[in-house]
Design brief:
34% of the residues lie in helices and 26% in strands. With 409 residues, the chain is an alpha/beta fold. It has 3 domains: 203 residues, 3-Layer(bba) Sandwich (FAD/NAD(P)-binding domain); 84 residues, D-Amino Acid Oxidase, subunit A, domain 2 (D-Amino Acid Oxidase, Chain A, domain 2, 2-Layer Sandwich); 53 residues, no CATH class. Strands 1, 2, 8, 9, 10, 11, 17 and 18 form an 8-stranded mixed β-sheet that branches. It is globular, with a radius of gyration of 22 Å.
Length: 409
């Protein structure tokens, strides 16, 4: 029997596994896909804080976001240019694989092409039932044996036992619901593509009911193979595909895109955490726990911080020999102490922002463009931490008046 099984090979799962591997625990990581980092369901924009905290090589960066232009429904523009870069654009697949390599170097064993079908609490352990990817002669790839990638079973299905488990498999909540953790109360629906583009050298964010109801759309340019590319996406409270196609068509009509026959990926983002992120012998981390920024849906830095809290809790549980729900609850106390206030304020702000009319969004832009307001907002802006900007906006007499109108609708 192993010490810990981690379900999911994204940043949350890898970081938690790596920290526990460094402490000497026998950790096995199960990832349903046969290649780490594929498919990519992410904008690929990562705050500098998160990127630097991982100590990953600079070659993973495709570009930096030093200026961000926000565009209102009537095409008013607010341009943020803080003194230091806001974020970096990364090759997300390579980013995940580099993080996985660090995790393997910490002694963690990977089982790729291994999909978890069920999780059962037994006397003294967790039993995880899995299914292997069809057509693969082993977990991980169809040829060769990568270091740190192991066999679980030669049969199409099997099981693995451990003293505890960490769920980090993204926004899927079947196991969490069966364990009494519940399901996030709110989601954003997202669609994105990547294409060659002309005429954009700075990131742009678009707002309004005609482009992204309840959220925003984006164009994030970067350089690849000596050509200009951009990630173009929409998140919304409704199905986003129609809005993304409309945005792409407008870009094509204005000469920015050569072709509309480009692949699009869609996914969902939780923007409210689980009611409980723990159960007996089990913790949930990252998207699997709904630990994202309610304002934007970004989740990397929250995932890393929560993974650290999970590793600390797991280590304490092994030290005490106590894997009860009461012991696992200390994980929720830890991550909420670090992130809880940010999430509460961000969730409240999202509820207000979702109720804004296009006219009110335009009015907000006019106020921000007035003397002193843009400068004050820019000095408070941080890519991963929005509480200061939100507090300023809600306390500002003119801005706050517009945002709070939604409370009375």
């Amino acid at each position: 029997m192993h010490d810990v099984v981690v379900v999911g090979g994204g940043p949350a799962g890898c970081h938690a596994a790596s920290l526990l591997g460094q402490r000497g625990f026998d950790v096995h990581l199960l990832e349903e896909h046969e290649t780490i980092g594929e498919p990519v369901d992410c904008s690929g924009v990562i705050g500098f804080e998160a990127f630097e905290a991982l100590g990953l090589p600079a070659r993973l960066k495709l570009g930096e976001i030093r200026t961000l232009t926000l565009v209102s429904p009537s095409e008013l523009e607010v341009r943020f240019s803080p003194p230091s870069p806001l974020a970096c654009v990364v090759n997300r697949g390579a980013f995940d694989r580099a993080l996985a390599a660090q995790t393997r170097s910490a002694g963690v064993t990977f089982h790729l092409g291994t999909k978890v079908a069920d999780l059962r609490l037994q006397d003294g352990c967790v039993e995880i039932l899995f299914k292997r990817a069809s057509g693969s002669d082993r977990c991980g790839s169809k040829t060769g044996q990568s270091p740190g990638v192991a066999h679980l079973s030669k049969s199409p299905q099997g099981k693995i036992k451990a003293r505890m488990a960490i769920l980090a498999g993204g926004p899927r909540y079947g196991l969490q619901r069966r364990l009494g953790m519940g399901r996030p109360a709110d989601f954003l629906k997202t669609a994105q593509t990547e294409a060659k583009i002309q005429g954009f050298d700075e990131a742009r964010v678009f707002m309004g009911s005609r482009v992204a109801p309840g959220s925003f759309a984006w164009i994030v340019p970067f350089q690849k193979s000596n050509s200009s590319f951009a990630r173009i996406g929409v998140s919304a409270k409704v199905a986003p595909l129609r809005f993304l196609r409309d945005l792409l068509a407008r870009l094509r009509s204005r000469g920015h895109l050569d072709c509309l026959d480009i692949p699009i990926r869609s996914w969902v983002i939780p923007v409210r955490p689980l009611r409980r992120t723990y159960a007996e012998r089990v913790l949930a981390v990252g998207d699997a726990a709904g630990q994202t920024k309610p304002t934007t849906g970004g989740g990397i830095v929250y995932a890393l911080l929560s993974a650290e809290a999970a590793a600390e809790t797991a280590a304490a549980a092994f030290e005490r020999g106590d894997f009860s729900a009461a012991m696992m609850r200390t994980y929720q106390h830890k991550w909420r102490k670090r992130l809880g206030r940010e999430i509460r304020i961000g969730a409240f702000f999202r509820r207000l922002a979702e109720r804004l009319t296009d006219q009110e969004i335009d009015d907000l832009f006019r106020i921000v463009l007035s003397d002193g307001v843009l400068r004050a907002v820019t000095t408070r802006a941080r890519f991963d931490w929005h509480r200061d900007v939100i507090s300023f906006a809600l306390r500002h007499p003119a801005l706050g008046r517009i945002f709070l109108r939604g409370l009375f609708r």
